[in-house]
Each structure stands twice: as structure tokens, then as C-alpha cells.
Amino acid sequence: MIDWLIFIPACFALNLAFGPNNLLAMTHGARGGVAFAQKAAIGRLLVFVPMIGLSALGLGLVLTASAALFSVVKVIGAIYLIWLGVRLWRAAASAQVEVGATTNLSMSRAFRAEALVALSNPKAILIFAAFFPQFVSVEAYWQSYLALGAAFLALEAVAIFAYACAGRFTMRVAADRMPWIQRASGAMMAMFGVLLLISPAPEAMGRPAAAR
User: Fold this and answer.
1) Measured between alpha carbons, how far apart are the two ends of the chain, in Å?
2) Fewest CB within 10 angstroms: 32, 51, 58, 63, which?
3) Is residue 10 situated within a structural domain?
4) What are φ and ψ of residue 96, in 5° steps?
5) 70 within domain boundaries
6) 189: pLDDT confidence band, cut at 50, 70 and 90?
């Protein structure tokens, strides 16, 4: 039986942890609004669904079992994050300060950014490969994994909403400082890209507990 009293607060803390995807939600919320950020973040959620499924199949993702494959995805994601950071920094000079302005924002581009960053995020891989199995019920393996996955996605949606609201609130109270906020977001995005580039691949989690 799943221990929801432990899983929900622990999982939500992981959902709320500040990282590249949540920074994207905050940035999209500031520049395009909460609804825009939530729609863009569907790209993230759609990527997480098969990642959870792969984790359930092998108690570890395919990416964690192949160092070469993980490295390719990680490098692509890192370069993309750095590119996003540079792009945000350079666009800061012409940042829109009007509440509700969505100039230069593309839903398809924001959607792809969320999806690619989610795919190359080591934190998500470790959550599905190492955190979920600690709560799986052996007697009802697939049902419990499905329940854990659904709960994670629901909590992730709440975290996305919270970060999008935080970005929008910042935009409203400090619209005149939006260029500086955008530069800070761009710098952090690039920093996440560099950290992702130098981070090691997660260890495979499919080993028996005694071997870990």
C-alpha cells in the first residue's frame, strides 16, 4: 500500500525544487501570462508520461542504462538551455513591460523548450528511477505505479501554476525592472545549461536494493 502521507509532501517538495523547467514556467508566466505558461508546460508533462512508463518497466529509465544515449540528450539539452539564456539576455533591452504583452512569444517554441528541457533533466530521471520505486506496492505493482505517476503529474501541474503566478506577480510589481529580471533569468538559464553539461549521468537504478 502506498504511504501517501510521506509520498505527497516529499514529491511536492521535489516538484517545487527550483530548476530549469520551473525557471521556464516563471519566465513564461512573466512574459506571457499564467495561462500561456501552463499551456507551454504541457510539453513537459507529455514528456514525463513516457519517462514514468519506462521507469515502471525497468525500475530505471532507458537513458540511465545507456551512457552514450544519455550523454547525447544531455549535451543537446545543455546547449539548448545556454542558447535560451543568451537569447533571454539579448532580448532584455526590448522586454515588454505592459501587463499581458506577449510580443515575440511563440507557443510552439515555448512548448518545445519545456519538452526538451524536461527530457534532458537529470532530476526528473532520478525521481522516476529512484524515488518512485520506494513507494511502489509489490502486491499491486502496475496500479501503484500508475497512481504514483498520476499524483506526480498533478503535483507538477500545481508547481507549474505556482511558478507561473510568481513570474506574473513579479512582472506586475516590478514591470519597470523587467529587463533586469529577464537578464537574471537568462543568466540562470545559461548557468543551468553549464551545470547540466558537466553533470554526470545518473547511475542505473535497476539493480537489486542490496547492490545499491
Assistant:
1) 23
2) 58
3) no
4) -75, 135
5) yes
6) low
CA distances from 181 to 35, 69, 167, 175, 195 (A): 20, 35, 10, 9, 21
pTM: 0.70
> Do the domain assignments include residue 144?
yes
The span from the CA of 84 to the CA of 67, in Å, is: 25
What distance in Å separates the CA atoms of residue 2 and residue 23, rounded to the nearest whole number? 31
Q: Which residue has the higher pLDDT, 134 or 185?
A: 134
Angle between helices 141-173 and 4-16 (to 10 degrees): 40
Structural domain boundaries enclosing 105: 34-200
Position 152 in a domain: yes
112 against 64, higher pLDDT: 112
Average pLDDT, the chain: 76
Give start and end residues of each alpha helix (H) in the chain. 4-16, 20-32, 34-40, 42-58, 62-65, 67-91, 107-119, 122-126, 141-173, 178-198
- The single residue listed with the C-alpha cell 507549474 is 160
Residue with C-alpha cell 535497476? 206
CA distance 159 to 207: 31
Cell 525521481, residue located: 127
Q: Which residue has the higher pLDDT, 203 or 51?
A: 51
Question: How many separate domains does the chain show?
Answer: 1
The least confident of 59-68, 70-79, 124-133 is 59-68
